[in-house]
Design goal:
1170 residues; alpha/beta; 6-stranded mixed beta sheet; 40 helices
Length: 1170
């Protein structure tokens, strides 16, 4: 079924909810005050028995205050609960929430993803089934695999199938609305350590792991509560009483089941590797975590001599940015086919790569980082600074392989294992871009070094303890941290004649993503999941739709190239890895759940019973070793990688382990959304991995990603920079509807700029125009007593403008469904913004006088009915994005006017497009007229003529049939909008056009060289009109220069166009619009009158008069021109300002007065209400 086939829900035929409780009075906003009669007495719904009159709207709205009132209204009426009751039993639509970290209050960056989560759920809660079914089918057809199509065709559940077979139609979907909180891991631990003043892991263990873990739990609960209230303030409707917490027993035991299945397939293993290590936190970090923490820092880099043993006086020249690793050097690597040079200086010889010796050097940075980094000295310059030198030999690197050298720190006991091993090895990964072409290899201090050393059987020297300090056997380095020994290393090298040079080197270096300290690479044993089955995960990823599309390629690239997943942490607050390792025989087992642990326990169960599966309580449980029979097998002390916690939620939160039928109803999720940066390596990857292992399927049908939130200037927000904006601050300063529109209208793959400037842009361009139209309508409706149930319009009564705006409304409705259903809200925002602009600047402006007529003539009634239908329908379309503003408007526009209607806009069916109202030909004519008006205004601007100054003629020259028809159909609108007396249509205005052509010497000289002077001279006699004609047609101009013909392009020539003293014009796409620029005395008087009317209207507004109030008006001036204008235009002034009397009498004491300056002189205005 297509959108055209969807059931038409008229703009204001809102569906009825069950009865709900009444709401309490509101202070700020009149529309939320309870009706004078209790709507619940004798009523089956919250709707009123009779419509109520419109009330005027405050001229200036405090939007944050309005939002708080709406929140109170929703709470009092249990609006969210009632929506769930309305939709219970309807076809399910499944959203899976990526959990927010419950560790601090929300920042504005959290609001972007949560806006998406809320607005798409709001849409599907009220969308017609036909539309969402069509969208699902469309996405399945464009999906990545047959699995998608089969799932879509099979339907989500038995409910879907039965409804489809019965041919039922309807609206709304049942949703779970489950929010998630991520609770465990280093992010929480670090904050609790700060609260307690802990400096290291030793402090935690001394004061008690149990107390520390309980404090972590408490912090997670505390900030989950804070974030709940902030999310409510954002307008997010969720089942807050049923949020999931990753620290729950169910979630933790579910991960145990996943890890057991991985173990059963042979994928869990204990490995030794050099891993990124945080010395402060005392734990290793996985590669996915490290990618989040790179920062630019300056380190001491050194050029060191490695003396060759076989060749006295010859040295390998080695470079490193981590001097501390020299303590553990075991080899030096060269590239076999790279050319190396031997440089003689004094009695010493230095061997290094030829490209490295000759080429300039720079830090591996970009942009401002590179610009601000100090320049690096070339190696050749370093040699020159040390005296005379010469290159005495060149040879390939392969000739160095096998040579041995003296290590830089062989005298240390800790380096004893490497004393006989220092040799030159071949390695293709040696780069020509930095260093010396000879790489120092320390397998115990670097990941690449480790794997190279493992392949070659090199010794592994691990110099560092858990806290990042050197082991005692490393002599003068013992007990010192790795990041505090650079000066000591340099001094030692210098003392022993091994230091060639040192410098400060700026580069991007990994830091702990939580505590921000520099990481170090350390040899450790950790637990891993082998990724040998990565192809299965990649196939699951292909089953889903990724937005943006390149997200899939990014995810597949990560899966293809990532190493095995390190799942262990040497910490306390997190998933207790369910691995029991026998120290007697080395055998380990993975326990799959609480029941299995209880059955296997031989000791400690009573101590653990009733507690959560966390450290230290679960550590008490011992099991029997299945291999050797030992009865004292303990759980490993490691906790899990925190991304395991959120990886399981597609199973744990949907009842996979306790209610498989319920899980089948909601799995896979129709939609997930999170920030793009990092999540390819984190949640997206983890979610896919677990689901693939447990179900063989993708856990989601559609994944949408979005960018980062930056400040107004495009810089990342940091507290230290003073540009961070907290959510609460932004909500009260800008209003959350503004925030939500800003996020919804930003291309998701880009970063959003957030701050006063961009929020003000949204308020100025969308919120205020939309509110002003609502206020305009309500204020007039209150005065005239408009009743939508009485003052209706028939199709044949509508004007062209009425038919046009209703046609465009249907097109916007169609776009809304497509955009929301296909998760492309940006498309709807762009179209809605255009529609609001057209509605405000064209329909309302052109129809304004229709509302001012006395009584209820047909044209006035139809104008009211049309604008009412447009406002009510548009309000429903934007409601998922602007839930507060739409609720406020709904209460006035619909609830008070429609007996028996729904209590909230969010309880109503989403309107479908009415194809019978769509008139695309009419829409094209209006767009053509808007183009002509725009060109006319541009022509006025070029002549410096205000729009209030009447002119005698508008000339239109166009070959467009639509524009010619628009002139005919909308002639009166063009005359009035551009303030001209007549419109003339011409085939061409070429006879009026004056064109001059001047050479653009910037391009001409470079193009023609020695011929430039001749080309310039020939251009002086060329027909400039012909040049313009060619360029306008997209063609080059052939210019004859003597006996030669050259080609001129638009960049070669600067054209100046004019239309003489009589006309001014503007052109676009083959259409030219001219205005007659000569202003006669009569026209000038009309212009003066227009200026006067504008100033009188401003004074009326400042005086607080209603737009319908009649006035007594006095205009006094010394200017003869102004007096003549008032006399000749008196009737127009009276009519436009609603003046029953116009004079130049002195004002009375009760008059409102103003003195204004016109171009012709000063004018004093005084008015009183008649």
């Amino acid at each position: 079924m297509t959108l055209d086939d969807a059931p038409v829900v008229p703009a204001i035929a809102f569906a009825l909810p069950p009865a709900v409780s009444s709401y309490a009075p509101s202070v700020q906003n009149a529309i939320f005050r309870p009706p004078k009669r209790d709507p619940l007495k004798g009523c089956a719904t919250l709707g009123l028995e009779d419509s109520m009159p419109f009330e005027k709207v405050a001229p200036k709205m405090d939007f944050p205050a309005m939002e708080r009132e709406v929140l109170a209204f929703w709470e009092r009426t249990r609006a969210f609960d009632r929506l769930r009751e309305i939709n219970a039993g309807k076809p399910p639509w499944s959203f899976l929430d990526g959990p927010i970290t419950a560790n601090n209050p929300m920042g504005v960056h959290h609001a972007w993803g949560r806006t998406y989560k809320d607005l798409y759920q709001r849409y599907h809660a009220c969308a017609p089934w036909a539309v969402t079914t069509a969208a699902n089918a469309s996405m399945a057809n464009t999906g990545r695999s047959a699995a998608n199509a089969s799932m879509a065709s099979a339907g989500r559940s038995a409910a879907n199938a039965s409804m489809a077979s019965a041919g039922r139609t309807g609206w709304g979907h049942e949703l779970r609305y489950q929010n998630g909180f991520d609770c465990q891991g280093l992010w929480v631990e670090v904050e609790v350590e700060r609260e307690f003043g802990y400096k290291s892991k030793r402090d935690i263990e001394q004061h008690g792991i149990d107390k520390f873990v309980e404090a972590c739990k408490a912090r997670a609960c505390k900030f989950a509560a804070v974030q709940t209230e902030q999310s409510k303030r954002l307008g997010q409707w969720m089942d807050w009483a049923n949020s999931y917490f990753t620290m729950s027993d169910e979630n933790n035991y579910a991960i145990w089941a996943f890890l057991k299945k991985c173990h059963e397939r042979g994928f869990v293993y204990k490995g030794v590797d050099v891993m990124p290590w945080c010395a402060r936190c005392g734990t290793g970090l996985s590669h996915m975590e490290v990618s989040e923490g790179y920062r630019v820092v300056g380190h001491t880099s050194v050029f060191v001599k490695f003396p060759l043993r076989q060749r006295k006086g010859e040295n390998l020249l080695v470079w490193t940015t981590t001097p501390w690793t020299l303590s553990s050097n075991v080899a030096a690597a060269v590239k076999p086919d790279l050319i190396y040079v031997k440089v003689k200086q004094g009695d010493q010889f230095y061997i290094l790569g030829k490209p490295h010796f000759a080429n300039p050097r720079s830090q591996p940075l970009e942009g401002d980082e590179k610009k601000n980094a100090p320049p690096l000295m070339a190696l050749s310059a370093m040699f020159k600074n040390n005296g005379d030198f010469e290159i005495v030999e060149e040879f390939p690197g392969e000739k160095l392989v096998g040579l041995t050298y003296d290590g830089p720190f062989d005298m240390l006991d800790g380096a004893a294992e490497a004393r006989g091993a220092h040799q030159v090895i071949a390695w293709e990964e040696v780069t020509e871009k930095e260093g010396t072409g000879i790489v120092h290899i320390a397998p115990g201090c670097g990941s690449e070094d480790y794997h190279l050393g493992k392949a070659l059987g090199l010794p592994r020297i691990a110099p560092l303890l858990e806290d990042g300090t050197f082991r005692p056997e490393f002599g003068f380095l013992g007990g010192k941290r790795f990041d505090a020994v650079a000066d000591d290393v340099v001094a030692s090298l210098k003392e022993r004649g091994l230091l060639f040079a040192k410098e400060k080197y700026m580069h991007r270096y990994p830091h702990c993503w939580r505590c921000k300290e520099e990481l170090v690479y350390r040899l450790v044993d950790e637990w891993f999941i082998s990724m040998s089955w990565r192809e299965e995960i990649m196939n699951a990823a292909r089953q889903a739709r990724w937005i943006p599309e390149w997200g899939l390629d990014r995810e597949l690239d990560w899966l293809k190239n990532m190493g095995d997943w390190m799942i262990s942490k040497k910490r306390y607050w997190g998933l207790a890895l369910p691995i029991w390792e026998c120290h007697a025989c080395g055998h380990f087992e993975v326990i799959g759940g609480r029941e299995e642990l209880q059955a296997r326990a031989v000791k400690g169960w009573e101590e653990f019973e009733g507690k959560s599966p966390h450290r230290p309580w679960v550590d008490a449980v011992k099991i029997r070793c299945e291999q050797c029979g030992g009865e004292d097998v303990s759980r490993v002390r490691d906790v899990g990688n925190p991304w395991l916690d959120a990886s399981i939620v597609s199973l744990s939160t949907m009842g996979y382990f306790r209610d498989r039928a319920y899980w089948e109803k909601w799995f896979p999720a129709d939609f997930v959304v999170e920030a793009l940066p990092g999540q390819f390596r984190n949640w997206f990857y983890a979610l896919l991995t677990v689901s693939t292992m447990m179900t063989g399927r993708s856990p989601f049908k559609t994944l949408k990603g979005h960018g980062l939130v930056l400040d107004d200037n495009g810089k990342p927000m940091h507290k230290s920079e003073g540009n961070a904006i907290w959510f609460d601050e932004a909500a009260e300063k800008f209003g959350v509807d503004v925030m939500r529109w800003l996020y919804a209208s930003t291309p998701p793959e880009r970063n959003v700029l957030f701050g006063p400037k961009h929020c003000d842009d949204v308020r100025r361009e969308v919120i205020i125009p939309w509110w002003n139209m609502y206020r305009f309508f309500c204020d007039l409706a209150a005065v005239d007593g408009f009743d939508p149930n009485v003052h209706k319009a028939k199709a044949e009564e509508r004007t062209l403008l009425d038919r046009w705006i209703l046609s465009d409304l249907q097109e916007l409705t169609r776009v809304a469904h497509e955009a929301y259903a296909h998760f492309d809200v940006l498309r709807f925002c762009n179209e809605a913004k255009r529609f609001i602009d057209d509605l405000s600047t064209w329909y309302v402006r052109r129809s304004r006088r229709r509302f001012y007529a006395d009584g209820w003539p047909t044209d006035k009634r139809v104008a009211y009915a049309t604008l009412y239908e447009v406002l009510a329908s548009l309000n429903r379309l934007v409601a998922p994005i602007l839930p507060f503003l739409s609720e406020t408007m709904y209460q006035q526009l619909v609830f008070r006017q429609s007996p028996g209607c729904a209590a909230s806009v969010h309880h109503t069916a989403f309107p479908a497009a009415d194809a019978s109202l769509i008139d695309r030909e009419l829409s094209s004519l209006v767009q053509a007229s808007l183009k002509l008006v725009s060109l006319g205004r541009a022509a006025r601007k070029s002549a410096d003529l205000k729009i209030r100054q009447p002119l005698s003629e508008l000339v239109v020259a166009t070959g467009s049939a639509a524009e010619l028809k628009a002139v005919e159909v909308f002639k009166d609108h063009l005359l009035d909008e551009l303030n001209v007396k007549r419109v003339t249509v011409r085939e061409s205005v070429r006879d009026l056009l004056r064109v001059t052509a001047a050479p653009n010497m910037k391009f001409l000289g470079a193009k023609f060289g020695k011929m430039t002077a001749d080309v310039k001279k020939a251009l002086e006699t060329a027909d400039a009109k012909e040049i313009a004609l060619c360029f306008d047609g997209g063609r080059s101009f052939l210019l004859h220069v003597g006996d030669t013909t050259v080609t001129l392009d638009p960049t070669d020539v600067t054209l100046a166009r004019s239309y003489g003293e009589t006309y001014a014009g503007a052109e676009e796409g083959g259409t030219t619009v001219l205005i007659h620029r000569v202003v006669t005395r009569e026209l000038r008087h009309e212009g003066i009158a227009r200026d006067i009317i504008r100033h009188v209207q401003n004074l009326r507004k400042e005086s607080g008069l209603d737009i319908s109030d009649r006035i007594v008006l006095s205009l006094r001036t010394e200017s003869a021109d102004i007096r003549e204008a008032i006399a000749s235009q008196a009737q127009t002034i009276r009519e436009e300002t609603l003046a029953v009397e116009l004079s130049d009498a002195p004002p009375g004491a009760d008059a409102f007065t103003a003195r204004v300056d016109l171009d012709e002189g000063a004018l004093s205005i005084a008015l009183v209400k008649a």
